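Kindly review both lines to help learners:
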Amino acid sequence: MNARKAFRRSLSADGLITAPGVYDGLSARIAAAVGFDAIYVSGGAISRSMGFPDVGLVSGSEMLKRVSEIQSVTSSPLIVDADTGYGNAVNVIRTVQDLERLGVAALHIEDQVNPKRCGHYEDKEVVSLAEMVGKVRAAVAARTDPDLVIIARTDARAVLGLDAALTRAKAFASAGADMIFIEAPRTIDEIARIANEIDTPLLINMFQGGKTPVVPPDTLEELGYRVMIVPSDLQRAAIHAMQQAARVLKEHGNTTTIAGDMASFQEREAIVGTAEVLGLQNAYMQEDE
């Protein structure tokens, strides 16, 4: 069973799917090795890995390139952040087609204006309900594999209020979205209300320090949520570790004092599969006679 079909089937099973956010091949390998059932390719994390804030500065082509790199080193189902679809409904069609060809399991598009910004930043704007319904319909029509999961995200909670976000979510479901993602609910009561009012499978965004309170996975599962993405935690942990190593290296000229906090040479090579690649070289590359 391929990753896309496996993810689609897992949505019909019991239990909450936790998908950590990754942003390159190395972070994807680390997440996959832990054994998560799915991996979230975070647009915000990719933007920050390029040195930019999450304000729509990464192009669709740049995102596709990074997704391709991630897809090439893991067989885990990928849930991809496709932002606004990088334009209007026609752009959404091409985005869906490109991501489907890459083999992703799911993707989400959102109703922010283009260029978008992080769902937990202030001063967001959303397009009209009619425009977003058209984009959802275009996304659904663009796929050729019915197992590709189309997720519709609304950021209307911060702009128009929760009632409007729920209205949009229901309209997106009627337009054919397989899963709904209401970004940045503010309280556990709002999280519960979303679950009570939306019959379509639900995705929720959970991370430390955002506008949404961190809710235990067991509680989310009991409420009926199917997928929990955790987009930034791996990257934020890596940022702290790199800052520490950089400071120690600057001060001491080496990192001997924190060697125990770093992956060993052998651990690093195991993560990237060096032994397997060298084995292939030995098997297929012969010396000249």
Notes: The radius of gyration is 20 Å. The mean pLDDT is 94. The chain is about 50% helix and 10% strand. The longest helix spans residues 233-252.
